[in-house]
Structure to design on (122 residues):
């Protein structure tokens, strides 16, 4: 996102009509749910690195922890972008954008589950 597009996006929050506060608060709760998901990914990465040393080999443990941490950073960034896009859509009475970040979280959790299965079987 360039500086110009960021400026336009933030300016979009000052345009249009104020939406019903219930919708704005629901948007904020959804944003906070994504932040909690990112925190859970960080906790999983730290737990894997801290407690997985004797069970999970380093060749699997370290890339998995780094992937979870990178995923958490990406989830936070996408959550902020989604919150902004939804808020602007509400103000301009447009359709809400699709939640693309849900696919990312599903892939991260599925990958972590698959890695756990591989480690348990191995």
């Amino acid at each position: 996102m360039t500086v110009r597009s960021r400026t336009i996006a933030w300016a979009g929050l000052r345009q249009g009509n104020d939406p019903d506060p219930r919708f704005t608060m629901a948007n904020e709760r959804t944003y906070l749910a994504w932040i909690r998901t990112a925190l859970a990914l960080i906790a999983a990465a730290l737990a894997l690195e801290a407690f997985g040393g004797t069970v999970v080999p380093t060749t699997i443990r370290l890339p998995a922890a780094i992937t979870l941490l990178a995923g958490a950073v990406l989830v936070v960034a996408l959550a902020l972008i989604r919150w902004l896009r939804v808020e602007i859509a509400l103000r301009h009475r447009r359709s809400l954008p699709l939640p693309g970040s849900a696919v990312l979280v599903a892939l991260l959790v599925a990958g972590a589950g698959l890695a756990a299965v591989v480690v348990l079987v191995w």
Q: What stands out?
A: The helical segments are 3-12, 21-51, 58-91, 101-121. The first helix runs from residue 3 to 12.
